[in-house]
Amino acid sequence: MYSKTSLGADQMSGGPTFSRRRKQILLVIAGVVVAALIAVGVYSAVSHDQYGPSANGCVNLTIAGSTGGSTLHYCGEQAKSFCRTAYASDDRLSQLARPQCELAGLTRAKVSAS
Which residues contact 107 (CB under 8 A, 6 or more apart)? Predict the structure, then answer.
């Protein structure tokens, strides 16, 4: 007779156990996932960031926007023009841009002379 409370012979053994091969497969999969996560972490830590700090004639500036932050990135003649405008104006963006222009090596004297 069927009873909801009594366990059958197949249920009394404690459930299925993993075979040795199945355990090895799971360990290999876990190892691959951990290795992939470590590789992504190392790559993120050492990879080159094209929008890193301002230097070598390139100006990078992060400003607040209505939907979040925006990144301004200028190199070469665009950077010189941007810095020339920043030194000529006195608005908030210009005040934030001046230190970044100096880090890029584009001082007031250099951009005014060209």
Answer: 101
Does residue 106 share a domain with residue 64? yes
Instruction: Give the integer Cα–Cα distance in Å for 101 and 107.
Output: 6
Residues 73 and 99 in one domain: yes
How many folded domains does the chain comprise?
Answer: 2
Residues 6+ apart with CB under 8 A from 105: 55, 56, 57
Is there a domain that residue 7 lies in? no
What the block records as the tokens of 113 is 């002379």
pTM of the model: 0.56
Residues 76 and 94 in one domain: yes
- The token duo for 1 is 């007779």
Give the torsion sign (CA, 25, 29, 30, 31). positive
- Domain residues for the domain of 97 are 58-113
Residue 36 confidence (pLDDT) above 90: yes
